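Hi team,

As requested, here is the filled-out complex form for the nicotinamide-adenine-dinucleotide run. I kept the field names the same as last time so the parser does not choke. Let me know if anything looks off before we queue the next batch.

— J.
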Amino acid sequence: MKLIDGKAVAEELKNALKQDVSEYKQKTGRVPHLAAILVGDNPASMAYVGNKVKSCEHVGFKSTLISLGSDITEEQLHEEITKLNQNPDVDGFIVQLPLPPQINEVTVTLAIDYRKDVDGFHPVNFGRMAQGLPCFLPATPYGITMLLDRYNIETAGKHVVVVGRSNIVGTPISILLSRKTKMGDATVTLAHSRTKELQKLLLQADIIIAAIGIPGFIQEDMVKQGAVVIDVGINRVEDDHHEKGSKLVGDVDFEHVKEKCSFITPVPGGVGPMTVMGLLMNTYKSANKEIYP
Ligand code: NAD
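And here is what came back:
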């Protein structure tokens, strides 16, 4: 079994990006600028956004954090989005999900100018991705393909089973891996809560991508010997041995599954840091007008 060290790969990529940013600065006199809107005080969201801001500092980006109260109205949030859409100094921005119940996430996603949608959630980017056109790839699927590439994991002709069909992970990664591209050409099965005989399907998978949100869902007896297992799940579970009284685990029963795999991602330190990398790469591409000239 080989551990896929997402943290180390993200560090390498960040150091390379830092170099690119310094050249970009010399050429243009400015640095790429990522903004983030955080609504409310959800501890997980605060931690994710904090990480993104720290990563911006690491690579030399400018970052702006806009923190809004959880009682904000949809209209007020839209005003903030419009300001960022119109601000020529902002290359890209994200609205950290989840949002409070009074706010419609779909409307918010649609309000973001797709040319600044560095999370890759806007239907224009999603549609362009599905058609193989230049776009901002959704950050997590982008991060996963960078990891597979870095570890020279062949996807062409392989059977990939993706478990989970969210708009931000499961569905886009299933499309990306099935396209006729370098990290694509796979035969993909997209499984979800209504899938029958999931274990039978999983046992045929050369590559499993788990994006479910249920701790330890993928068990040893669901994985073929030698399979590659990419665990996207981030679940906080109680743990008395930890000083915080809890710890983060993935959707894969790592300790039991790892012996059967050729490659496996840990949680934390697998896909998570690569999601941030996807976001940084999209922002850099936006600053360079690489996707939308
Ligand atoms: P989601 O929470 O929106 O949906 C979960 C999916 O799992 C659904 O499509 C559902 O059909 C499927 N599912 C639920 N029960 C199932 C079952 N019994 N059998 C088969 N499928 C089942 O998905 P999401 O937003 O992609 O999040 C999934 C996990 O990934 C969460 O733990 C989330 O925190 C994590 N996540 C991690 C990153 C990262 O950067 N590592 C990014 C996004 C999400």
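Two things worth flagging: The chain is about 40% helix and 15% strand. The longest helix spans residues 6-28.

Thanks,
J.
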